[in-house]
Design a protein that fits this description.
single chain; about 1550 residues; alpha/beta; 9-stranded mixed beta sheet; 7-stranded mixed beta sheet; 57 helices; disordered N terminus
């Protein structure tokens, strides 16, 4: 009953009971009157004692004597007895589709009525000459694209000419061709930024238009027999080639000797770091300091022996440099640099052991590695490295001996075979007999020989170990050059070597050669699933490498034939654009036959559709790979005219599939139910994936399709280190700082709360300090734990660290739940973790002798929990310092996330201005700077004038020569005496462009005040400059271009495509280092960065979105780690983002009548085609199987509701609703305005309301009257505004916020306009329009019989509430029926008139005296049994009050106000809607109006007032948006 405590009925019942019984018993309510059980009485007495502190009287009796004389206190009686409801009546619909859906779900307790096949007598057809039976294909209409500004101008130009000539036609043709070329150029430039994508797949070459020329991945090549002579030739060639490679490596080694030797002579730590990285990793390295594979070395040397020699030489030289630098004696400010060098040496030794330790490192090499490790403080690791190397040597020796022994046997066998060739058959038989006779003798000799060999082997092994022992380095013989490691080497590895730890996945090639990288085990499983044509749900963290399988699927489809289709479904337009370019780059090699209409790539969005990168309506259907969004795919799957395309589907890839639980989740759900082929579903953030997987499996089972597999991978490739930027510095934030003690005790830790290796050792240390000695926890000390487990070579791997993390977490939970970590200890632990040192800076031990109490005081003062939301992120200096600090730490590029479009625009502008101001101050901020700058500028101007003078003279000389040449030719042609004809051409000497004026020092790009990458600019300077020129030519704001030139950009949905593409390209090129973004870059965008920064606050920023956004940092193949920085965010918000569990993934339970109508229309077309003996692209059985799950298998779960029963009843009552609305005939075919309803499916239930207003002629009558009353000067009286006043209640409605509703006394809005008297609410519609909306809300003709549907579903739960049983039950069973009533509040005894029957109402609600007659939709939602899941979204009603008040729900008048003043900026203050949200709402409203205009035109023609008003409204909204800067 916890939830019922907030229901006023409970208080009314308690009040009724107490007062009535108290007045009847002399003003006292006694214990025996209440009749509670002893346990209830005891609980009441206990709670009363707690409230009164034990000083008051007992709870019973309750004294009411002081209030018994109050007039009107006596409660009224219960309502009269209500008669049981009759069984609802449903019309019989003769549809085999409906019958098929209901076949396994029969209905009972309903009365079936014969359907009336007569046409409805609607005024629309009689009075307004609308045409029945018309149909507008939604897909065809969606294909139609709005013309851009250039196309509109071209049309106007041609229209103004009147007569169009052939020249004009050619001009238009060239114009169209130029547009195509520009589109392809843009696609190529965008795809080129996706580095390496064009090399990820072998070329696709089709043969006979059906089969790929390349053999399948699992094709086994036949082994050809080679003769002995041929083998000798091949071996000889191989040896020669090997010798050439060795000679080349030897020559290359000579050029490397000098730089390797120079490493040992360097005395500057910074230079040593730079030269070491440049030498071993290369200048153009992608990852700054990853030694994996030694990229530069592997590129220069081909043999592993030579590579190992170079690496060992580098290790020796670095150690020699350490000795000269004297790391331990460096000043404090250089300690961080020294530690970095030590990390590099450790990483070099680790990678050397991984890459060359088995066979390419000799004894001297392993000794060099040991000495290097010992010299920097890792003697234990050095010893384990030696033991590992020794094991490899012993195994190699054993294998060599076995190989030699086998060779001897083979050699002996060969001689026998040769002898056999010269013996006759008789000798062969004799030999067989001899072998048989000597068998026993040989066995005895063999046993003796084996014993002898075993003894010899042991002796040889001991001898070899003695030989290898020479190469064991002794710690006391090696000078210690750095003492910063301390006594626990494993702790240092965890604290500082986390990013460099070896990843033990992805080490083996795919045996079938299906991909050109080394896949992890789970990735190989994915490949096998796809090859078996099975569907799969893949849950893996961001940057783990899961997206490759989507492209593998496309590769399979493209290689199979030219007809099959693969579809990629993305949640956002930004992701669609990126994936399209990726496909173009990967598979652009496929060439289709001549004169074929096929295309590789198609894109279909609401805004446009294209093929091959060129926007052409309808051409998407010819493409083999379609990239789209769920909304469009759902339309295609339900479109009767596109079933031939549906039949060509081979694979569907759903990316970011967790969006099924979001705002547009219904479209995701429908597409997954409708698809007729296997699919791949990808996500990084699916909580409880088993539930989602089970649902997917059941849907596929219903459709008789392949099994759905699930692959879950939990480990990120790179760790994310979290920081809080406060006090002008980055402070590391341990995730356990965000824990809440009570939550941990009750629920444990979040499933995806992971720790970095650094955080693991910090946690162990902090807990040890808090709890003191504890056997179990002490056993997890890194030195003890890793000493007891097998660690390869003494180097902790990522997998080792994950196992250690699991043990730590388990032990930590035991400490918390066991009480060892009490509340005080837990708080102290969180404070201690906040002071954990960062690996990015040196933290020397305290030397000032501070006491522990003083340190504790400082810790509390710096407590994160006290941090509130700040606004420093809006200050330019604050942003500049943060970006500069990250740049110094090599942690740029970064994406700054903020959901406010307005704020990120301000942040970008302020940062750009700060950079300019600082640069100006550098050159003009002081007198000295002004003097120096003036000298520089004077010299530049002098050079400029000299160059310009030379250029002008060259131009004059050229012009003079040209004139002389022309005069000479003219004189010769005129026959002048003495003139000589000069046949030479005009002088074409190139004098170059006019010199540009020198730029002022304050305006040029100074690297000190810019975040762009000079290296990237040097590599791509031509393309980048062309991009800037193109944007300037296309009208992109100069401030945005200035930002890009300084390495700073912005990305949100309101920006133009050209600018957003430029930001994405430049960021991927590495040119941009800072990008401010909203949520557009959260989902799957390939924009790898090193840091993600979170600032501002928004309800949209939840745990799921945080995980998506933070996952952009530390991408696999680009970085070793990622940083997540919180900037000026309240710690409570940070805590909820980091430590909270992901919410369970579930869909919406909304069985839409419009969706049913769309499915019925598809079935109707298929049925008619079959009756007319037309060929069907897909069979009716296939369509039926795919459509059925939409109405029988919703992706929703409820602990109490019986969804299966509810679905079948709600489905059938929805059919009845469509029939009663005149949208469905008794034979199951659509009729009337059904096409308008299906066409406007996105705005349901507004589509049903609009159809009702139209069919009754109410909208025509309303607009006609309002047109007569229209005043030209009064915008509020315009007919389009009047139309909005009707539509605003139903189309894209937004409930009025309570604080806005209270502004009823406002005389005028901030805009200066007063749309309606009072608040920002849509006023109640008057006359015909308002009446129609009200009638539609209540359920016209008579609408959905909600009461009947709810009552029928609960037919088996009927109860009679007799007076003696009217008691509040102590519990409710899960089925919703009342439990055994043992005591309670009896009300209304002896009042038989209050006897009520109920079956649908909940037992608790029924005790108020109500039966199954519900007052409103809200009453049904709040009072129905818990075996039903009901909310207002389940019903096709508009603007219905949540609490059942009369009339319409107050609706925000944002659209009405916008139509009056046309300014988005006023909507924030007047209507409480921010700019970003306002843009989306208005755009959605306009889209609905546009669709309505198109479909109404089909029925009405162009002279109808409704059509004309809708068309005018569409044009007006479009004009207003363009004036506001919309696209």
């Amino acid at each position: 009953f916890t939830c019922d405590l907030f229901d006023g009925r409970l208080f009314r019942h308690v009040f009724h009971f107490v007062v009535s019984k108290g007045l009847a018993n002399k003003g006292q309510l006694r214990e025996e009157t209440a009749g509670f059980e002893e346990s209830v009485n005891a609980e009441l007495y206990f709670m009363w004692a707690q409230c009164t502190g034990g000083r008051g009287d007992d709870f019973f009796p309750i004294d009411l004597s002081d209030i018994k004389e109050v007039p009107g206190l006596k409660p009224s009686g219960l309502p009269g007895k209500a008669t049981p409801r009759k069984a609802p009546e449903l019309a019989e619909i003769q549809s085999d589709f409906v019958e098929a859906l209901q076949k396994t779900m029969p209905l009972s307790n309903v009365v079936w009525l014969e359907g009336n096949t007569d046409e409805w007598d609607e005024p629309l057809w009689r009075r307004h000459s609308w045409t029945q039976g018309m149909y507008l294909d939604a897909v065809k209409e969606q294909e139609t694209m709005e013309k851009n500004e250039g196309e509109r101008k071209m049309e106007e130009k041609m229209r103004s000419k009147g007569k169009i000539t052939d020249k004009d036609r050619q001009f238009m043709k060239n114009f169209a061709m130029k547009r195509k070329q520009m589109a392809l150029r843009a696609m190529h430039a965008y795809s080129a930024s996706l580095t390496g994508s064009n090399k990820l797949h072998p070329p696709i070459i089709m043969k006979d238009e059906q089969k790929a020329a390349a053999p399948p991945a699992d094709h086994q090549k036949k082994v050809e027999k080679v003769s002995k002579k041929q083998q000798e030739i091949l071996d000889k060639r191989e040896q020669e080639e090997k010798k050439k490679i060795e000679e080349a490596d030897k020559k290359q080694m000579e050029s490397w000797e000098k730089p390797l030797d120079k490493l040992g002579e360097i005395l500057d730590p910074e230079k040593l770091e730079k030269d070491l990285l440049d030498l071993l990793l290369g200048f153009n390295r992608i990852i700054h300091d990853s030694f994996v594979g030694f990229p530069a070395v592997a590129s220069a040397f081909k043999t592993p022996e030579a590579q190992a020699k170079v690496v060992l030489k580098a290790i020796k030289s670095t150690r020699a440099s350490f000795k000269k630098i004297q790391l331990d004696k460096l000043p404090a400010e250089s300690h961080g640099r020294a530690r970095n060098l030590v990390r590099y040496v450790f990483a070099m030794c680790q990678e050397a052991m991984n890459s060359y330790g088995k066979k390419d490192i000799d004894g001297k090499g392993i000794k060099a590695i040991q000495e290097a490790l010992i010299s920097v403080g890792f003697p234990g690791t050095a010893q384990q490295a030696y033991e590992t190397w020794k094991g490899h040597q012993l195994k190699a020796a054993e294998a060599a001996d076995a190989s030699a022994e086998g060779a001897e046997k083979d050699k002996g066998g060969g001689k026998d075979d040769k002898k056999k060739g010269v013996k006759d058959d008789k000798k062969k038989d004799d030999k067989k007999d001899d072998k048989k006779d000597k068998k026993d003798d040989k066995k005895d000799k063999k046993d003796k020989k084996d014993k002898k060999d075993s003894k010899d082997d042991k002796d040889d092994e001991k001898d070899l170990e003695k030989e290898l022992a020479v190469y064991r380095a002794k710690a006391d013989k090696v000078e210690l050059l750095w003492s910063g490691v301390g006594g626990d080497e494993f702790s240092f590895q965890l604290q500082h070597m986390g990013p460099y730890m070896t990843r033990t996945v992805g080490n083996a090639k795919d045996p079938k050669g299906r991909v050109n990288f080394r896949p992890d085990a789970w990735q190989r499983d994915l490949l096998d699933i796809v090859d078996d044509d099975k569907s799969a749900l893949i849950v893996a963290p961001t940057a783990s490498g899961k997206t490759f399988i989507g492209y593998y699927v496309m590769d399979k489809v493209l290689r199979a034939d030219n007809d099959g289709v693969a579809v990629y479904v993305a949640p956002s337009k930004a992701l669609v654009n990126q994936v399209s370019a990726e496909i173009y780059a990967r598979f652009g090699s496929k060439v289709y036959p001549m004169h074929s209409k096929n295309e590789l790539l198609g894109v279909f969005l609401k805004e446009f559709n294209s093929a091959g990168g060129v926007m052409e309506a309808g051409k998407w259907k010819n493409c083999q790979v379609l990239v789209t969004i769920p909304h469009i795919l759902e339309m295609l799957l339900l479109s009767p005219s596109n079933q031939d395309w549906v039949d060509r589907l081979r694979w569907i890839v759903f990316d970011e599939v967790h969006c099924i639980g979001g705002e547009d989740g219904l479209q995701w759900e429908h597409t997954m139910q409708l698809i007729p082929c296997p699919f791949i579903a990808l996500s990084a953030t699916v909580a409880e994936p088993k539930h989602f997987h089970d649902w997917l499996g059941k849907v596929n089972e219903d459709k008789r399709q392949s099994k759905v597999e699930m692959v879950v991978h939990t480990e990120r490739w790179n760790d994310l280190y979290k920081y809080i930027y406060t006090g002008g510095e980055l402070r590391p934030m341990h995730p356990f700082c965000c824990l809440v003690e009570k939550s941990v005790r009750l629920h444990g830790l979040s499933a995806d709360l992971t720790l970095t290796p650094q955080e693991m050792v910090q946690l162990w240390s902090a807990v040890s300090d808090v709890i003191g000695s504890h056997a179990q926890w002490d056993g997890l000390a890194p030195a003890k734990y890793f000493a007891g487990v097998e660690v390869f070579g003494g180097f902790i791997t990522k997998r080792d660290a994950r196992r250690y993390e699991g043990r730590l977490k388990a032990a930590f939970l035991e400490l918390v739940k066991g009480g060892k970590l009490c509340s005080a200890s837990f708080s102290n632990l969180k404070l201690a973790l906040q002071q954990a040192p960062s690996k990015d800076r040196f933290n020397p031990p305290a030397r000032d002798g501070k006491s522990g109490a003083a340190e504790a005081t400082e810790a509390r003062e710096a407590d994160f929990a006290r941090m509130g939301k700040g606004h420093g992120y809006m200050q330019a200096a604050h942003l500049f310092k943060l970006c500069t600090d990250l740049d110094k730490l090599h942690s740029l590029p970064a994406i700054v996330f903020n959901f406010s479009r307005k704020e990120i625009e301000k942040m970008l502008g302020k940062l750009i201005q700060e950079l300019k101001d600082r640069q100006a101050h550098k050159y003009y901020g002081t007198e000295e700077a002004v003097f120096m700058s003036k000298k520089i500028m004077d010299k530049r101007w002098a050079d400029y004038y000299a160059k310009k003078q030379a250029w002008e003279q060259a131009v004059k000389a050229k012009e003079s020569k040209n004139q002389e040449s022309k005069a000479s030719r003219k004189n010769a042609e005129e026959g002048e005496r003495g003139a000589v004809k000069d046949d030479s051409a005009d002088v074409n000497e190139d004098v170059g462009d006019e010199p540009a004026e020198p730029m002022d020092l304050r305006d040029e790009i100074d690297l000190e005040f810019s975040f762009h990458s000079p290296k990237a600019f040097g590599q791509w300077s031509t393309e980048i400059n062309d991009m800037f020129k193109e944007m300037k030519f296309r009208g992109v704001a100069q401030s945005l271009i200035d930002g890009l030139q300084r390495g700073v950009g912005m990305h949100h949905e309101g920006l133009g495509k050209r600018y957003k593409d430029a930001v994405e390209i430049l960021f991927r090129r590495g040119y941009l280092k800072v990008v401010f973004a909203t949520g557009t870059l959260a989902l799957g965008i390939n924009m790898p960065c090193r840091s993600t920064i979170f600032c501002g606050d928004s309800l949209e920023l939840n745990g799921l979105m945080f995980r998506q956004m933070s996952g952009r940092a530390g991408r696999r193949g680009f970085d070793l780690e990622g940083k997540v920085v919180f900037l000026d965010m309240a710690f409570l918000k940070i805590r909820s983002l980091v430590a909270s569990d992901l919410s369970s993934l579930t869909g919406e339970f909304m069985l839409s009548p419009t969706t049913l109508l769309r499915a019925l229309h598809e079935w109707e077309v298929v049925t008619l085609d079959l009756e007319q003996q037309r060929a069907l692209p897909r069979s009716k059985d296939d369509i039926s199987r795919c459509v059925a799950p939409m109405f029988s298998r919703p992706f929703f779960r409820s602990k109490t509701a019986d969804l299966q029963t509810q679905v079948r009843y709600q489905l059938r009552f929805s059919v009845d609703l469509l029939y009663k609305q005149g949208l469905l005939a008794s034979n199951g075919y659509t009729r009337g305005l059904a096409n308008i309803v299906t066409h406007l499916f996105e705005v349901e239930p507004a589509n049903i309301v609009l159809a009702r207003l139209l069919s009754k002629g109410l909208l025509h009558k309303y607009l006609t009257e309002e047109k007569k009353a229209m005043t030209k000067g009064d915008r509020r009286s315009h007919i389009t505004v009047k139309l909005v006043s009707v539509l605003a209640v139903a189309v894209v409605p937004k409930a009025l916020a309570e604080q806005l509703a209270e502004r009823t006394g406002a005389a005028e809005k901030a805009s200066g306009f007063q749309a309606m008297p009072g608040a920002a609410a849509v006023a109640p519609c008057h006359r015909q329009g308002g009446a129609g909306v009200q009638q539609a809300r209540r359920g016209p003709r008579p609408g959905l019989d909600v009461d009947g549907c709810v009552n029928t579903e609960n037919r088996g739960s009927r109860r009679n509430v007799a007076p003696e049983q009217r008691a509040v039950p102590h519990r409710l069973e899960k089925s919703g029926t009342a439990g055994a009533i043992q005591g309670g509040f009896r009300v209304g005894e002896g009042d038989d008139q209050a006897d009520q029957w109920y079956r649908a109402r909940s037992p608790f609600s029924s005790i108020s005296g109500k039966g199954d007659s519900f007052d409103s939709i809200a009453d049904i939602v709040s009072s129905a049994r818990n075996v039903l899941h009901l909310d207002l979204n389940c019903f096709p009603v508009v603007a219905h009050p949540m609490h059942g008040e009369p009339g319409l729900e107050p609706t925000n008048s944002f659209m009405l106000d916008f139509m009056i003043h046309g300014k988005i900026k006023y909507l924030w203050e007047d209507n409480g809607i921010g700019p970003t949200r306002a843009w989306k709402l208005i755009a959605d409203f306009k889209e609905a109006v546009k669709k309505a205009t198109a479909v109404i035109k089909v029925f009405s023609g162009t002279e109808d007032i409704v059509y004309q008003t809708f068309e005018a409204l569409d044009a007006e909204i479009g004009r207003y948006l363009r004036e506001q800067g919309g696209r």
